[in-house]
Structure formats: structure tokens, C-alpha cells
Amino acid sequence: MAKDISVPFSYTKDGIYYFERRVPRDLRQHYSAAKIAYSLRTRSASVAASRAARAAQQLDEYWYHLRVKNIELPGKHLLRMQQRSPDAPGFARSPSPDDRASVSLSEAVAIYLRLKGANRPATFHRAAERACGYVIDVCGDKDLLAYSKADATRFRDALVERKLTGSSITRIFGTVRSVVNFVAVEVGVTISNPFTGVYYDRFSGVQARAPLPIDAIRAVQKECMKIDDDLRWLVALVSDTGLRLAEASGLLRDDFVLDADIPQVVVREHPWRRLKNSTSSRKVPLVGASLWAAERVVNQRDDSPFAFARYNQAEATKANAASASLNKWLKPLVPQQCTMHCFRHSLRDRLRAVECPSDIVDQIGGWRTEGVGQSYGEGYPLPVLAKWMNLIRL
Do 172 and 152 touch, CB atoms closer than 8 A? Predict the structure, then answer.
């Protein structure tokens, strides 16, 4: 990576020019990164200089707009909020749609995150900002009522052109729909959401996650016991419990109960690690490699209350870092395309193989079980879960 002083706001990499500019400190709250960088798609210094200058000018104009929009307007508190009496001239009991509050998509995101984003992880905020940011990049920052089906299909085409998988497009459209629907109700406008019912191939580029074969699980567990460090304890724990990696990474030592008749791990929400849904809170019996790993975790010579301290040195559990490092180690030991998450798929198949009832499987894995009746009672007692877990012990 090299700088070329003849081309402002740029650097070169492998001969290609890239635009780069830092976001001003007073505008950082509008961005998910501290700088903007992307390829200018040219090896020509003159072409790069022209494109970089145009991009810098556009940013300066947009940043000016953001700063002006944030300036407090005198009397702003009186706008749209002034209450008039029924006798006042021009009072209307049923305002027309033209009188209702206008909300742009960027403002809608702010409302959505302010009301629904409390106590939600940073990923929730990033997903809403990123998905709606894509819409603004393609269609502009319009009033919610101004978006049309043509905008939605143009947005879809842009996502397809970026070669996103069908599952990623589904996730992005779902987030945009949620923001639009929620804020429309909040501000009292009736809207036919144009981002609903847009067609695309939902299976494009999607690869099904295959469960790990039993012999591969045995080989991984054997290697974990051979190396015998905290990373391998985490792998072994997941291999025989089917815990989500984020759930396991954020555990405390106190979450392991080894002195009971049935050794168990208690999966519960912590301030540094949220759970995916209400059914994720559960107790899972420890058997086989998971019991071995739990004993190692509890007896490790470390003053940290965390089971896996290396991933809990900040305000939130670094589950993505755990996934990256463990999948890299796992790659030569398992079939192609298999990852840490495949242990969850394998657990479900292993329980199916011993004819475990599906609602017990759901309770062990923390999956949501459909049906109103499933929300009644406290679920199966631990001895019942342990009976089935012992049947799949390797």
C-alpha cells in the first residue's frame, strides 16, 4: 500500500488506486467505521485524481448537510407539537395524510433504534444501519411514503449485482421491512410497504450446512484432549452439547455445575452476551467430551470468573473472534465446508438416531418449538434430558 501525493485522498495497492478519507470526529455517530475506503477501479493517476476529487466534493457537501441538520432551529420545539384548541381557526379533527409527520428513511432508522435498540447488541444496530444504508445508497434518503415498488426492485437488483447470497438478501430485506413497518405505525401513517413481496432467488449461493460425521467428531475430540488448552476445551464443550459458539464463549465458571447428581451447564443471559431467544435459556447435561472440557475449565489456574477469558476482555463476548480462530484450526480435521456450527447440526442428528422426541431435542439445543402448548410449564426435568444425552455419548 503506497501513497501518491499527486492524487489526493488516495493510495495504491497492486497498482490500483483506492479512495480513502477519514470521517470527521463530529460526524462519527453517522458511520460504522472511522474512515471511508474503496477502489477507484483505475491504474491511471489522472483518472484516479478526477474520481477522488469528485468523491471528496460529494462527501464535503453531504457532511455539510449533516452538520446543518444537527443545528438546533429556534422555536423547533413548537413545530408539529403545538396544540390548538378546537375553536382555533383551521383546526381539523381528522388530519389528512398530507398533514401527517414526514419521516425520511434515515430518521426512521434513528427512531427504530431509539425505541427497539435499547439493551440490544451492537450487531442489531449495525444490521439496521447497514441495511437501510444500502437502500439510501441505491434509492436515496426519501420520505417513507415516497418509496415505490420500482425502488424496491432496483434495490434488489443492486444487491444481486453485489453477488450477495439469497439468505443475505432475505436478511437485508427483512430488516428494511421491519424499520419501515415499525416507524410507519409509530408516526401514524398508513403505508403499503414496497419492500414486501419482492421476488429473488432465496437459495442463490446458499450452501446447506452438513452435520459432522461421527468419526470426524471422534477425531476432533481426540485432538482436543491431546492439545488440552482453553481453545480445545471450547471445541470439546460445543461438540457434545450443541451449544451455539457465542453461548459457550460467554460462559462463567459458575455456569458449570459439576458437583450435582447430573453434571450440567446452565445457559443464561449475561450483560456481556445476550441469548438468541427466550428458549435459549436452559440447562444441558454434560457427557463425554463436554464433561471433560467442563472439568478442565473449572479447575484451570486462572483468577478470571470467565470460562474462556481470552474472549471476554471487553464489554461484549468476542464470539466472532472465537469463530475465526477455531474454524481455522478445525479446517484440516473435518470435511470441506464444515465449521464449528456443524456440531449443532450433528447433535440434532445424533439425537434423532436414538429416536429422541423432537421437543426434547429442541429443549436440549435451545431451539424454539412451535405450538401454543409448548409455552406452558417448565419443560422436561434434567434426568430425562440426561437419559437421552447419555445415549449419544461417544
Answer: no
Q: Find out whether 174 and 159 touch, Cβ atoms under 8 Å.
A: no
Whole-structure pTM over 0.85, yes or no?
Answer: no
Residue 205 to residues 163, 255, 341, Cα–Cα distance (Å): 9, 39, 19
Q: Which amino acid is at 60?
A: D
Which value, in Å, is the radius of gyration of the alpha carbons in the chain?
27
Number of Cβ within a 10 Å radius of residue 390: 13
The three three-digit cell numbers of residue 142, written as one number: 426519501
Cα separation, 344 vs 240, in Å, equals: 9
Q: For residue 230, what pLDDT is reported?
A: 95
pLDDT in tens, 88-120: 444 333 344 444 557 889 999 999 999 998 877
In angstroms, the CA 317 to CA 249 distance is: 7
HEC-encoded secondary structure of 177-231: HHHHHHHHHHHCCCCCCCCCCCCCCCCCCCCCCCCCCHHHHHHHHHHHHHHCCHH
**In the numeric block, which cell numbers belong to residue 97?**
395524510
Nearest to 269 by CA among 253, 286, 250: 250
- Joined grid coordinates for residue 10: 488516495
Q: What confidence tens digit (pLDDT) does each residue in 180-201 have? A: 999 999 888 888 999 999 998 8
Q: Residue 20 carries which DSSP code?
A: E
